[in-house]
Write a structure and sequence with these properties.
Strands 1-2 form a two-stranded antiparallel ribbon. By secondary structure, the chain is an all-alpha fold. The radius of gyration is 49 Å and the shape is globular. It holds the Pfam family EF-hand_7. Keywords: Calcium, Metal-binding, Repeat.
Length: 343
């Protein structure tokens, strides 16, 4: 028969004693470290409650740790954002400074180029560049710059003198900086290069002289590059120039109407001719048979190239737009002589 006996609080059924009982200490230790897990009775309850308290404490500690560590991270993040923003600001400022520097550099080059045009002088870099892009020597380029300056200056003085003598005439503002205008250019073609042709073709030569600046006063660059083709150009360069002259509306074709307009103005009309236009129409048909290689009723640049390659005499079929050999030799000799005198 089992007997039950009471165990005093804090005591033990085997050894009696106080709170210093080894079993009590062992239970506390197990509770603290979870050693009683899986066993029944009070130990399990105490262990479960103790574990929950410990986990709660740990959770609170970890949560407080996360909050504590979040603050430095937030501060570090904000600090990093400010640093990145500062870096971006400095980068944008440097980029703007570089862009501004490039703009200033381009502006300075344009100013220097404009001063070169006004003075008729070239710095060594520009001189070398024109030498590479043209068929001229450095000596010839320098001489052409001086001629350009004289032509522009004389035109400006004549314009001012005309305005002074005629109250109704107003001198064009800044005319000395514009370049070579139509009247000066036409006089140059006639007196220097022996080009005697009618008004329409003169105008076309002026407009086709500097590609991209059709109809505008000829600048120093256009003057030098145009004369390179005009005086020393290859067959291909002269072919392209003549085609631009004859293509009156710049659509890439020389049409029957354009041929008619060019040839009609070039012919000398005889009083006995009842219908001179009939003769012009006959010439147009002959020109088409010679130049229209693909037989589509108009002359493309490719047609013109192929026809000139087969028969070079057709290069100026619709009127003179290149200087004579005599005037070319004379002008180039003048360039050499003027440069030798200056040195």
């Amino acid at each position: 028969m089992n007997r039950s006996r009471s165990v005093p609080p804090g005591g033990s059924g085997t050894g009696g004693g106080g709170g210093g009982c080894p079993q009590a200490q062992q239970s506390v230790a197990k509770l603290a470290f979870g050693g009683a897990a899986g066993k029944g009775g009070l130990a399990t309850v105490l262990n479960t409650r103790g574990g929950a308290m410990i986990m709660k404490s740990v959770s609170i500690f970890l949560a407080s740790g996360r909050r504590a560590s979040a603050v430095p991270r937030d501060r570090a993040s904000k600090s990093g954002d400010r640093a990145q923003s500062s870096d971006r600001g400095r980068g944008q400022q440097q980029q703007l400074q570089q862009q501004g520097g490039r703009r200033d550099s381009r502006r300075n080059r344009k100013i220097l180029a404009k001063m070169d045009e006004l003075n008729g002088k070239l710095n060594p870099k520009m001189l070398e560049m024109y030498k590479r892009r043209t068929h001229f020597s450095k000596i010839e380029v320098e001489a052409l710059c001086k001629i350009f300056r004289k032509l522009v200056t004389n035109a400006s003085l004549n314009s001012k003198a005309l305005a002074a003598n005629n109250a109704g005439v107003i001198a064009k503002a800044g005319s000395s900086t514009d370049g070579i205008d139509r009247s000066v250019f036409r006089e140059l073609l006639h007196s220097t290069f022996d080009i005697v042709t009618e008004e329409t073709l003169m105008e076309r030569i002026f407009c086709a002289w500097e590609k991209g600046y059709e109809g505008l006063p000829i600048r120093l660059e256009g003057w030098i590059l145009g004369l390179s083709t005009f005086l020393k150009g290859t067959q291909a360069e002269k072919t392209a120039f003549c085609f631009r002259v004859y293509d009156l509306n710049s659509d890439g074709y020389i049409t029957k109407d354009e041929m008619f307009a060019l040839l009609r103005n070039c012919l000398i009309k005889q009083p006995q001719d009842e219908d001179p236009d009939e003769g012009v129409k006959d010439l147009v048909e002959i020109a088409l048979r010679k130049l229209d290689m693909d037989k589509d009723g108009k002359v493309s640049f490719q047609d013109y190239q192929e026809a000139i390659a087969e028969e070079p005499l057709l290069l100026e079929a619709f009127g003179q737009c290149l200087p004579s050999d005599r005037s070319t030799v004379s002008f180039l000799s003048t360039l050499q002589a003027s440069q030798e005198e200056s040195t």
